[in-house]
Amino acid sequence: MGHDHGHGSAATAHRWRLQLAFGLVAAFFVVELATGLLARSLALISDAGHMAADVVALGAALVATRIATRPDPTGRRTYGRYRAEVFASGLAVLLMLGVSAYIVIEAIHRVGAEPEVDTGPMMLVGGLGLLVNLVCMALLRHGSDESLTVKGAYLEVVADTVGSVGVILAGLLVRATGASWWDTAVALAIAAFVAIRALWLGREVLAVLGQHAPKDVDPNRVAAALETVPDVADVHDLHLWTLTSGMSVATAHLMTRDTAVDPARILADAAAVMREQFGIEHATIQVEPPDSAACSRTSW
């Protein structure tokens, strides 16, 4: 049993949050990059580089949520275009890792040199960046538990928030000690934090693309629950995966007992188990009599 794919994904429901965050981050990126270059602060430039990654990632997420809701005129995309959102999250991961690598390379180039850092504009823009990021965090936090796309954007903003705190800290340390290497050290700390966040999100993206079972669903528990449906003798060919955030999918074959007389009731009960116990609304279930020759169990 099944249904069409006309409903919206979790990310689509939070599209306005992504739009507002995109506008705030894009505007601040211009300010931060210009100030970083003028103040010669690697911490500020590195945070601006991460902000640039945010702009691209948020823009990609917005495009993906739009693509995900478009109808497919070819009829060949039988699961719709929802995976576009997962690919957008993957792009965010790559951008975050790229920014981390850039910061490390720039830090290596500064070894042995201590350029004078203008801490006044550096701390001022760092404070403004902290305010912008806190607003964006408040916007995206609600949707981050429901959508992998929004979660990717949220984690980037969290990393930016830490980056803004780092910029302020670097400015205070440089001003207090007169040693500009603090600016480079803080930049490297920001790079490490961003890379760790990227790897964390990347694991989730790969789990979806690898068609792993949803992280909150145990396949053994699903099989056991289906076996409790009256007149079900055996459950096999059970597959569980995530199409995109908020959209889990399942297929299963149910072998009935000899005494079963109402396959429609078995089908309805099994669908109710999937929906009510595991939150899986799109379950394709095949009910087979015990002497069925139509079912050939897969060998993979």
TrEMBL record:
The Cation efflux protein transmembrane domain, residue ranges: 19-209
Topology within the bilayer: Multi-pass membrane protein
Superkingdom as given in the UniProt entry: Bacteria
Listed InterPro entries: Cation_efflux, Cation_efflux_CTD, Cation_efflux_CTD_sf, Cation_efflux_TM, Cation_efflux_TMD_sf, CDF/SLC30A
Residue ranges of domain Cation efflux protein cytoplasmic in the record: 214-289
Entry's transmembrane regions: 20-42, 86-108, 120-140, 152-174, 180-200
Listed Pfam families: Cation_efflux (PF01545), ZT_dimer (PF16916)
Compartment(s): Membrane
Entry's Gene Ontology cellular component terms: plasma membrane
Any coiled-coil regions, as ranges: none
GO MF terms held by the record: zinc ion transmembrane transporter activity
Keywords in alphabetical order: Ion transport, Membrane, Transmembrane, Transmembrane helix, Transport
Similarity comment: Belongs to the cation diffusion facilitator (CDF) transporter (TC 2.A.4) family. SLC30A subfamily.
NCBIfam families, per database record: CDF
Protein name, entry field: Cation efflux system protein czcD
Organism: Nostocoides jenkinsii Ben 74
